[in-house]
Design goal:
The complex is a heterodimer. Chain A is α+β, with helices and mostly antiparallel strands. Chain A has eight helices and eleven strands. In chain A, a hairpin with a 7-residue loop joins strand 2 and strand 3. Classes of the chains: A alpha+beta, B mainly alpha. Strand 4 of chain A pairs antiparallel with strand 1 of chain B.
Chain lengths: 242, 310
Amino acid sequence: MTALPPPPPKRLGLVIDLDTCVGCHACAVSCKEWNTSGFVAPLSDRSPYGTGQSGAWLNRVHGFEVVDSDESSRTVYFPRSCLHCADAPCVTVCPTGASYKRAEDGIVLVDEDKCIGCGLCAWACPYGAREMDPGEGVMKKCTLCVDRIYNQHLEEVDRVPACVAACPVSARHFGDLADPDSKVSRIVRERGGFDLMPEQGCRPTNKYLPPRARRAGGPGQRLESAEPAGGFLGWLDRLLSD
Amino acid sequence: MYPALSVILFSSLSGAGYGLMFLIGLLAPAGALPDAPAFAWSALALALGLVSAGLFVSALHLHHPERAWRALSQWRSSWLSREGVAAVVGYVPALAFGWLWLSGPRPGPWLALAGLATAALAAVTVWCTANIYASLKPIRQWHQPLVPILFMVFALGSGALWLLALLGLFGAVSPLMLAGVIGTVVLAWGLKWRYWRTVDRDRPISTAASAIGVGGTVKVLDPPHTEDNYLLSEMGFRVARKHALKLRRIALLLGLGLPVVLVGTGAAIGAPGAAALVGAAAISGLAGIVIERWLFFAEATHTVALYYGR
């Protein structure tokens, strides 16, 4: 059923820290590796060893240069995956019932046996979270590693999405965003976590944490003045300027 | 947005078919169409043929057409599903209407009822098709209140041109009918002109800064992949925008200019030359709509392109 369920008791999702992400793509690669043999298997590629490769990935890491108003710039690495939105338009547009949001934890999934590969859900998602599998002809998306997080065969420490387990700088956090006392909810409160494109009205579950403000007295301010006023350097400067 | 031929042909052909179906459903019971059975046969064959051809090519767009029947299930939430249901259900009154029109002593209350139901379902189907696009917020050029109205008026206009072509063949064009057809076509392109002005003027509500949530000027430094992917080929299409202005003029010429001139000349010289000219007007009108539909896709931008700096 592609109608949205009532607000779920749990809202499982990710909190991604744009301050600490170093853009190493480990999350994207481990996602591909886990999911090509997991719930959405196979996650296929076209011409993987030839020219013009393409393939379905559920996580993509973008690198941006953001120039502030004071002309200083910073690099922002930005991992992009499904945000498991509360008002997920990809679910309601699906004509077959293949696309659905779980009533128990809010995870958005695709039942691949029902998918006709029309691509409308990918059009409906503002974030580009869905990709058509070139081999299977069905839509693929992040499952929040639903086959890991509840998996009793794994050690408890491993019951997190593959991307979270892989991140070398702990820029990705997994938890229940409906519970105000959870670790993820606390981080979002403390660090000012935000929604991507709130104007699109999807109410994403996943949150992003902003890059921290720069410390005062950056490297530029610690250099000595190029026009010394007094002392030996001042005398030398005056002498050579004449 | 990538202008897939199957989707463009679907809405152009089925639009013309539903427009024609709508008109014959209302005009035949009113006794406003020729009595000849050959006219009824050709009008029905043309309308159902255009609609069925459109539906058939739309299935080519699917990766799993064998599961297409499942698309009839989610009409509560999905415009695509509603369109499927309306298209399938629409065949029932259309076939009943056709049977009554061809066989019965005309016109009777049953013909009127079946005609009315045929017209209503034709209108509902086009409305659903239009709303598939108009409901998609990430594509600002589609998420416009004018879009469903445009689909309806274009369907009516091109259906009317095909009806006029048939009436021309049977030498039954009335001045009132002629004025009505030209009026609808002019209205459709007038609204399209307004739509173009609106989308050219409007600024997008989402920006690269809101897409990543970090304020400032955002430049792509390090794209996530070096080759093309599904998102870029499907939603990053931009080749055609280069020629958009020229194509808008060509669409106006084929869709509006030529049909008006051809129909006008046909009316002036009268039968038998008129039939050929009005037929050419219908073909030209449909070609204009195909280009208009192509631009509807090619000029549409999706928010995902913001992540790629496009």
